[in-house]
Design goal:
11 strands, alpha/beta, Purple Acid Phosphatase, chain A, domain 2, 5-stranded mixed sheet, binds fe (ii) ion
């Protein structure tokens, strides 16, 4: 089964740029590339920071752009999003009984869980007691089926001081819930705006660059908090024996000169 992963495209209002980059154009070209080459994917998941400042006009633009995107798309929120503005633009988006933007998808490879880690208008993430109860119930329902976790904030450090200060709060409590299930296969996350592969408590975890700006691994290397590095989408290939994650820098892909 194939899954497409995109994250952190940070749309401003239409007509505005962000850090000198055209976030709308970048997402548009990325979606066009996915539709052309990966139309066979089971679904596309967007792991949050859909809008840069939770602007309703940004969500309206995204809703319109997705109208003719052929893949089933799971939209998740991150710390730059406004839960209220998002739900106003996407009123049919799944949410749990407490109003958090959380969803479950049963697939041929197991149970996919999409978590809402938004705390509010702050950068760090939160997975509160209500959300932990929801997760515990989903894990119990999954029984021994494989579980695949998608979330915006990582519940662990990634070795970048700037990001490690704004990861998920209370990671131990989150880890304790996950540990009740013995078959969590992979955790896919966003937030850190770069590719990282992490093994956390025995669970493989991967992240992606954002589609607009990135966070430099060493901030002094660019003299600031953000950088321009190739955006990428993830192509996740899962079968009975393996999980493969490809990172495709589609906007920087050109043919070599033959001759
Ligand atoms: Fe972000």
């Amino acid at each position: 089964m194939k899954i497409v992963h995109i994250t952190d495209f940070h749309l401003p209002a239409p007509g505005e740029d962000l850090w000198g980059l055209d976030a709308h154009d970048r997402l548009d070209r990325c979606l066009t590339d996915i539709a052309r080459w990966h139309g066979d994917a089971a679904f596309c998941v967007m792991t949050g920071d859909l809008a840069d400042k939770g602007d309703p006009a940004a969500y309206a633009w995204l809703r319109d752009r997705l109208d003719d995107f052929p893949l089933k798309t799971v939209l998740m929120i991150g710390n730059h999003d406004s839960r209220d503005a998002f739900l106003a633009a996407f009123p049919t988006a799944a949410r749990d009984d407490n109003g958090f933007v959380q969803d479950v998808l049963e697939t041929e490879i197991g149970t996919c869980l999409f978590l809402d880690t938004v705390k509010g208008p702050v950068s760090e993430g939160q997975y509160c007691v209500q959300r932990r109860a929801w997760l515990a119930a989903q894990l119990e329902r999954a029984q021994d089926r494989p579980v695949w976790i998608f979330m915006h904030h990582p519940p662990f450090n990634v070795g970048m001081p700037y990001m490690d200060r704004i990861k998920l709060e209370e990671p131990e409590k989150f880890a304790n819930v996950l540990s009740t299930h013995g078959n969590v296969r992979h955790l896919f996350f966003g937030h850190i705006h770069r590719t990282a592969m992490v093994n956390w408590r025995g669970i493989p975890c991967t992240s992606l660059p954002g589609l607009n700006h990135q966070v430099p691994l060493v901030s002094e290397s660019v003299g600031g908090s953000f950088s321009v590095e190739p955006p990428m989408y993830g192509i996740i290939l899962i079968d009975g024996d393996s999980t493969i994650v490809h990172f495709d820098a589609c906007l920087d892909r050109t043919a070599v000169e033959m001759g």
